[in-house]
TrEMBL record:
Residues passing through the membrane, by range: none
UniProt GO molecular function: NADP binding; oxidoreductase activity
UniProt domain Aspartate/homoserine dehydrogenase NAD-binding: residue ranges: 8-117
Protein name per its UniProtKB record: Aspartate/homoserine dehydrogenase NAD-binding domain-containing protein
SUPFAM superfamilies per UniProt: NAD(P)-binding Rossmann-fold domains (SSF51735)
Length: 165
């Protein structure tokens, strides 16, 4: 049984947690972490088998695979820490690994795997996969918490020039 820990309990982390909890018999969600403890508690209590709410260090220790679903700002540091501990890692915020080749080299040296899903808009991959048939219509709806945009370069530029007021 693959023991999985998830860092980040927002939309992506929650969807992954529910999938593991209900649809993947070979995996067990053993731990979650979110900097917002209430978010982690809500997610854990909503699952059939509630995972432990642990610090990232504790989560890494009890997991075989750690999934980063928090933000690109912590992706590299978390992936590095996971791999240093000899564990496999899946990084959902792949943009956070730009220029971080040392993590992949470290993973190779430690015999670990770093999984990088193909794109934040996974719906696009589904459309590409389905393109071998006939597609008549596609409706793709994505959402992002406004809180997730705090500090984004575009937002900061607009605030600097008074456009965001």
């Amino acid at each position: 049984m693959l023991k999985v820990g998830i860092v980040g309990c927002g939309a992506i982390g929650s969807a992954l947690a529910r999938a593991i909890d209900g649809d993947i018999p070979q995996a067990e969600l053993v731990a979650v972490f979110d900097r917002d403890g209430q978010k982690a508690a809500r997610l854990a209590s909503s699952l059939k088998k509630a995972p432990k709410i642990l610090s990232t260090n504790e989560l890494i220790k009890v997991s075989d695979l750690v999934i980063e679903a928090a933000s690109k700002d912590i992706a590299a540091a978390l992936a590095r820490k996971v791999v240093e501990n000899g564990k496999d890692c899946m990084v959902m915020s792949t943009g956070g690994l730009i220029g971080e080749v040392d993590i992949l080299n470290l993973a190779r040296a430690k015999g670990c795997k770093v999984y990088l899903p193909s794109g934040a808009l996974v719906g696009i991959d589904g459309v590409k996969s389905a393109s071998c048939g006939k597609i008549y219509s596609v409706t793709l709806i994505t959402s992002k918490s406004p809180k997730a945009l705090d500090g984004a370069p575009y937002i900061r530029r607009r605030e600097t020039f008074g456009a965001g007021k």
